[in-house]
Each structure stands twice: as structure tokens, then as C-alpha cells.
From TrEMBL:
InterPro entries from the UniProt entry: Ac_CoA_lig, ACAS_N, AMP-bd_C, AMP-bd_C_sf, AMP-binding_CS, AMP-dep_synth/lig_dom, ANL_N_sf
Record-linked SUPFAM superfamilies: Acetyl-CoA synthetase-like (SSF56801)
Keywords per UniProt: ATP-binding, Ligase, Nucleotide-binding
Keyword ATP-binding: yes
Domain of life, source organism: Eukaryota
Ranges where the AMP-dependent synthetase/ligase domain occurs: 136-523
AMP-binding enzyme C-terminal domain mapped to chain residues: 584-662
Reaction equation(s) it catalyzes: acetate + ATP + CoA = acetyl-CoA + AMP + diphosphate
Name this polypeptide is given: Acetyl-coenzyme A synthetase
Gene Ontology MF terms: acetate-CoA ligase activity; AMP binding; ATP binding
EC number: 6.2.1.1
Secreted listed as a keyword: no
Residue ranges constituting the Acetyl-coenzyme A synthetase N-terminal domain according to the UniProt record: 65-126
Length: 704
């Protein structure tokens, strides 16, 4: 949460007040040292031979990819303008402003513009245009509910269009105008992408908050974005758990009000009904979806917006306790999400696509809502979780809908792998053509299982590296016939993407080598800003090394020019593919009366990829026992949400600090990961430690 006056990075203690406003630029960037063993695998090449058999592919050969890539780099404006003009523009953009930018803080403020001056509407392009092109009766969403026995609905493009217009008209009735930001706090039902499209239709900006976030976290986002309207749902079952979204939304609205921002309206979808989930209702503020939306007209003229008008903000974790609202605009995001979807998944008109991501994350934005619909695709929208009722759920869905492309996260793959091959083997996966992954580096063991057991060695594994900030895929092995795949490598850049590796001094690394992963030129869906704080965006992404976008990831390039991601270089953890700032967890912990100071680092975790390890020093009078551990874990879950649950609480007398009071996370990371096996002489430079005995004590009390 960032509602209260939380303390920030490097100062997770109540007793220190020195650097409360320390910001992301104070982070000591470090190149990750973990995960490197898999890189020795870079000669291990896999070539699936048959995925394209009997099927036309968008890219025919590696040469064709190289030719298009060269073109996209030589003339980005021309390359992307050609693609952009295959969409509908109410007014064409002037070719002269197809791409104008400044990527160099030494020259001036960061500014990125694509197709400026053009007028379009992304909802019109995603929905109306498909209906006009004769796809009205094509299924847009195969909705698969949480329970096997539960409702399953097919929703056509025509029906999506009608419902989008009704929701858009409801938003207008609640006073939403162009440029206003609407908060969506919903489960993974088709009404979520529909509500996103409805916002876009009237030029409103959406801010989707993942349905697993706590009231505190939601309130912080509502407050930051000044949402007057929140769209939510009574409740939902995820697996066997009841999640009472309306109750959380009510609590969040109260918290926001206490800070001085009032939520005027809540639109509430009934998913479970009063028998399974009771809700409080306030007349005039709360509106049932069925009562407000259903009677509306199915006609709603799209608002024609500038290509550079905002489309959405999406909060993501950074190095401070305060999540940042990443801003994306309309035209560039439309062109890039659609084009990456088409090529990454080699989408053909008869295919059924299945992305398991929730729209609360960027993957759900680009590869559930926008990319697929902009391509007129049919897709499965799945409300539940991969292992419920059994770990064969995903493959049963593949079988049921004859899915061609699955797109999921390594953490899910690992969890299903551990459950056993039998859950896969009993299912018919012959429809599958492509296996996608996203969210974190995929370890070769999980890659091989996905490739061999799930895909029967027929389907390429498309490991897509990208970020909330990039809006769409950046580095990936495109499914090109004959392409050499290397398990664990994100591989090659997408069209228009110029990755650069910098060493610690900021020199570009040519050929083989490793360092900070940067991007040299803007691509159409580059983030434009951080909502309400352009300076912060410049600080985080453009100030450490001038003239480049800094991804925050470490990376290695091998002799074949393939890129291998090595992990975050800042204080952001990747837990089950979700970004969590160490500072967010620390801020939550220090709110508890027993906690004096907290320092959080990542540890290796078999399923989650990275787990959360929290060092905690206690205030006098509090005893370090198991009950308090449990209480602190619950406390973090309540403050942020279950995704931030600490795996380990390590009660410590003190944490190592520099003389200037900065926590030495490098040391904490090593002790957390290596425990008593840690090599005391291998801790690196400890000369700045204020009190070296602190380190000894930590090693003795290590918790793993
Ligand atoms: C799309 C998404 C972004 C961070 C990113 C990186 C990690 C994502 C990855 C990957 C290695 C991949 N990441 N995909 N690392 N290989 N294929 O996940 O966005 O939630 O913003 O996270 O996730 O560390 O910087 P987001």
C-alpha cells in the first residue's frame, strides 16, 4: 500500500528518519549472480521440425525475419506506419509525425510520440471493425468458469460489441468523460475485458487492479489515480477460495475517503449471488450491472482520440514502496500489441488462443484484451486456477476448445510438472501448435518438460521477455520454421527493438557478454510516463545511463546473438511471475507494532522462482516466536495481498548497514540463499560495514 506515509528504500526502520524520500535513483543496481549455470547450456539447440506442417506461417524463414528486422531498424517510422495504416483511422496521422522522440535526458525531457495527430479508437478497431468484416458471429470469448460444473459461455464479436456499448453508456450515465480514469477491480470474467474496451470506447482511461490485491493496495491505487468510478463484482471463487471483491472495494473506498478522495460510483457485477456472497449496497453509489447496464442502448459512437491520448495506466512494483502507474497511449500500443500477437503466436484465423494471465497484469491487457481482439481471434477466458479441481485443468481446456496456442508462466509450468506427467498424458493436445511462456526466466528443466511432455516435441516454446513498461513482447524466439531454440533463452529481438547490453561503466558490450539490458530506440508501445510523475519515470528508466531505456533486468548475449535474461538488477522480486518491490513488503512489515526494522530479499524457490525472505528486528518487549512469525505473515497478506506472502521470517538482532545507514542487501541476499554454507570471505567488499559482527550473528541464526 502507499496510502500512509510509508518509509522507503534503504530505510525500512521506524527509528531512522533520515532518507524517507529516497527514490528509485538511489537504488544500488547490481548485476544478478544467480541463475548463471543454465547459461552454459547455450550450445544446446532444439529444433521442432513439424509444428508448421500443413500450415502456412506468417514468417517463412529466418531470412525473412532478418530482412523485416533490418527494415524495422533502418526506418522505424516507415515500417510501423505501413502496419498502422492497416487499422482504421478516423483521421490519418501525418507521416512526418509517425515517430518523434527524445530518449536522451542530456538533450531534454523524455518524450515519445507515435502516429501523433492521427485520430482513432482502439475499441472500434478491436470490435466494430471485426463485426463489419463479417466476424460478427465468430466467438471472441470461450468463457470457462472456475468450477467444472459451472457456467461456460461462448460470446461472439457481435455480443461483445453490444455489451461494450451498454457498459460505455453506463459509464457516461455515471458521469465518466474522456480522460477520466476508471478503476476495474474484477475477477477474470469476460466482463473485465469488456469493461476495459468500454472505457477505451469513450476515451476514458482504465486502471485495472488485480482482484487478489488487498483493500490497502486497492485504496492506494484509487487514491493515486483519483478514480470516481470503480467497477467490481460481488465475489468470485478462485479454486476453492472465496474472494469477496465488493467487500474489499467498499473498504478501499473508505480508506480512500479518509485520505480525502471520494469514490462516487461502484458498478457491481453479480457473479455469485446473495446465497454465496452477501454484499452491502448503498443507494445512489452502488449499482448492479444487471440493473444499470442491461437497459442501455447498444449504440455508442466511439470517441475519436489522438494516437497519443492515454489508453490505460497499470500499476507495477518498483524499487520503492510506492507502485507506479505506468501510462500507455492509444495508437502505438494498438499497433504493437496487435503485431506482436500475430507473429509471436503465428495466429491464423481458425485458431483458438488461450492465455492464462489475468487482466490485472500487462499480459492480460496485451494478450487477452487487445492483441487477440485486434486480430479477430477466438480465445479462451479462464476464471479459475491451473490445478483445480486437478492439475490437468489447462490441458482439459486445450482438449475441450481445440486450442492452438497456450500462453502461461514458468511458475505454473513448474507446479504442473511437479504434479506429474499423468495429468498431461491423459489429455488430447494434438491441436496445439505453439507453447508460450512469460513472466520470469524459464529454467531448462521446465522448458524441456513443456516442450516434450505438453507439446510432444512438436511445438516451439516461445519464451517472451517483456514488461509492463514495454506494452508488448520485446525479445522472443519467433515461431519460424527451422529456428534454433535454446531452452532458457529469450533469444532474438522483435521488429523495431534494439537491445543493448551495457557494462557497469555504461559501455556498450559488443558480441558475447553480459550486463544491463537497455533499449536504444523507442518502439511503438514504449511507456510514455508514470501517471502524475513524469520526473519519476525519467529518474527510473532514463537517468542512470543516458540515451537508453533501462529495463531493470540483467542479460547475457551469447555467440549466436541470443539474449539470456539473468534476473532483476534492482530491488524488485519476481515471485511466481509477479513483480514485488522489496520495499513494499518492508513497508508493510514495519507498520506492525512489534517490528522495528525489516529488510527483504529474494531466495531461490522451486515453484515460485523467487521467494520472499524477510529479516525482521523487533521492538523491545516483543518475543521472537512462531506465533509472531505467523502473525507477521498474515499482516503482510492483509496489507498487500496473498502474492506478497513472506516465505521466511528471520528474526535478527540487527541487519548489516553501511556507515551512512544503507542496508547491505547484497550480504543479506547471500546469507538468505546460502545459510550456514555461506563463504564468509566471499561476501565481497565489507569495508563499508558499520558493525561487522552483525553479519556473524545473522549467519548463526539463519533460517534455512
Ligand atoms: C510481461 C511481464 C516484467 C519483469 C521483467 C523480467 C521478468 C518477464 C520474462 C522475464 C525472463 C522472460 N520477465 N518475462 N524474465 N524471461 N520471458 O511479465 O511484465 O509483470 O512488468 O514483469 O518480469 O524481470 O523485467 P511485468
Amino acid at each position: 500500500s502507499f496510502l500512509g506515509n510509508r518509509v522507503n528504500v534503504g530505510c525500512a526502520g521506524k527509528m531512522q528518519k533520515g532518507n524517507e524520500d529516497s527514490r528509485d535513483e538511489d537504488v544500488l543496481y547490481h548485476l544478478p549472480y544467480a541463475n548463471l549455470e543454465r547459461h552454459h547450456d547455450s550450445d544446446n539447440v532444439v529444433v521442432p521440425e513439424v509444428f508448421h506442417e500443413g500450415r502456412a506461417t506468417h514468417l517463412k524463414s529466418l531470412d525473412e525475419y532478418k530482412k523485416l528486422y533490418e527494415e524495422s531498424i533502418a526506418d522505424p517510422a516507415g515500417f510501423w506506419s505501413n502496419i498502422a495504416r492497416s487499422f482504421y483511422w478516423k483521421e490519418d496521422f501525418p507521416s512526418a509525425t509517425a515517430c518523434t522522440y527524445n530518449f536522451d535526458l542530456n538533450v531534454g525531457p523524455i518524450a515519445i510520440n507515435w502516429f501523433k495527430g492521427g485520430k482513432t479508437n482502439i475499441c472500434y478497431n478491436a470490435v466494430d471493425r471485426q463485426v463489419e468484416n463479417g466476424l460478427g458471429s465468430k466467438v471472441a470469448f470461450h468463457y470457462e468458469g472456475n468450477d467444472l460444473e459451472d457456467e461456460h459461455r461462448d460470446i461472439t464479436y457481435e455480443e461483445v460489441k453490444d455489451e461494450v456499448c451498454r457498459v460505455a453508456n453506463s459509464l457516461k450515465e455515471m458521469g465518466v468523460k474522456k480522460g477520466d480514469c476508471v478503476c476495474l477491480y474484477m475477477p477474470m470474467v469476460p466482463e473485465l475485458p469488456i469493461a476495459m474496451l468500454a472505457c477505451a470506447r469513450i476515451g476514458a482511461v482504465h486502471s485495472v487492479v488485480f482482484g487478489g490485491f488487498s483493500a490497502e493496495a486497492l485504496a492506494g491505487r484509487i487514491f493515486d489515480a483519483k478514480n470516481n468510478v470503480v467497477i467490481t463484482c460481488d465475489g468470485v471463487m478462485r479454486g476453492k477460495k472465496l474472494i469477496e471483491l465488493k467487500k474489499v472495494a467498499d473498504e478501499a473506498a473508505k480508506l480512500s475517503q479518509a485520505r480525502g478522495h471520494n469514490v462516487g460510483h461502484k458498478l457491481v457485477l453479480q457473479r455469485l449471488g446473495p446465497e454465496k456472497c452477501k454484499v452491502d449496497f448503498v443507494e445512489g453509489v452502488d449499482h448492479w450491472w444487471n440493473e444499470m447496464v442491461k437497459p442501455q442502448s447498444t449504440v455508442c459512437e466511439p470517441e475519436w482520440v489522438d494516437a497519443e491520448d492515454p489508453l490505460f495506466i497499470l500499476y507495477t512494483s518498483g524499487s520503492t514502496g510506492q507502485p507506479k502507474g505506468i501510462l500507455h497511449t492509444t495508437g502505438g500500443y494498438m499497433v504493437y500489441s496487435a503485431t506482436t500477437f500475430k507473429y509471436a503466436f503465428d495466429y491464423q484465423p481458425e485458431d483458438v488462443f488461450f492465455c492464462t494471465a489475468d487482466c490485472g497484469w500487462i499480459t492480460g491487457h496485451s494478450y487477452v484484451t487487445y492483441g487477440p481482439l485486434l486480430n479477430g481471434a477466438s480465445q479462451v477466458v479462464f476464471e479459475g486456477v491451473p490445478n483445480c479441481p486437478r492439475p490437468d485443468r489447462l490441458w482439459r481446456i486445450v482438449e475441450k476448445y481445440r486450442v492452438q496456442q497456450v500462453y502461461t508462466a514458468p511458475t505454473a509450468i513448474r507446479a504442473l510438472m511437479v504434479a506429474g506427467d499423468k495429468y498431461v498424458k491423459g489429455t488430447d493436445r494434438s491441436s496445439l501448435k505453439i507453447l508460450g511462456t512469460v513472466g520470469e526466466p524459464i529454467n531448462p528443466e521446465a522448458w524441456n518438460w513443456y516442450f516434450k511432455v505438453v507439446g510432444d516435441e512438436r511445438c516451439p516454446v516461445v519464451d517472451t521477455w517483456w514488461q509492463t513498461e514495454t506494452g508488448g513482447h520485446m525479445i522472443l524466439p519467433l515461431p519460424i520454421p527451422g529456428l534454433h531454440m535454446k531452452p532458457g533463452a529469450a533469444s532474438l529481438p522483435f521488429f523495431g527493438v534494439v537491445p543493448v547490453i551495457l557494462d557497469e561503466d555504461g559501455n556498450e558490450v559488443d558480441g558475447e557478454g553480459q550486463g544491463f539490458l537497455m533499449v536504444k530506440k523507442p518502439w511503438p508501445s514504449t511507456l510514455r510516463s508514470i501517471s502524475g510523475d513524469h520526473e519519476r519515470m525519467q529518474d527510473i528508466y532514463f537517468s542512470r545511463f543516458k540515451g537508453y531505456y533501462m529495463s531493470g533486468d540483467g542479460c547475457r548475449r551469447d555467440k549466436d546473438g541470443y539474449y539470456w535474461l539473468t534476473g532483476r538488477v534492482d530491488d524488485v522480486l519476481n515471485v511466481s511471475g509477479h513483480r514485488i518491490g522489496t520495499a513494499e513488503v518492508e513497508s508493510a512489515l514495519v507498520l506492525h507494532p512489534a517490528v522495528g526494522e525489516a529488510a527483504v530479499v529474494g531466495i531461490g524457490h522451486d515453484i515460485k522462482g523467487e521467494g520472499i525472505y524477510a529479516y525482521v528486528t523487533l521492538m523491545n518487549k516483543f518475543q521472537p516466536d512462531d506465533d509472531l512469525k505467523k502473525e507477521l505473515i498474515q499482516y503482510v497478506r492483509k496489507e498487500i495481498g496473498p502474492i506478497a506472502t513472506p516465505d521466511v521470517i528471520h528474526f535478527a538482532a540487527a541487519v548489516p548497514k553501511t556507515r551512512s545507514g544503507k542496508i547491505m542487501r547484497r550480504i543479506l541476499r547471500k546469507i538468505a540463499n546460502e545459510g550456514s554454507k555461506v563463504d564468509k570471505d566471499g561476501l565481497g567488499d565489507v569495508s563499508t560495514l558499520a558493525d561487522p559482527s552483525v553479519v556473524e550473528a545473522l549467519i548463526e541464526t539463519h533460517a534455512n
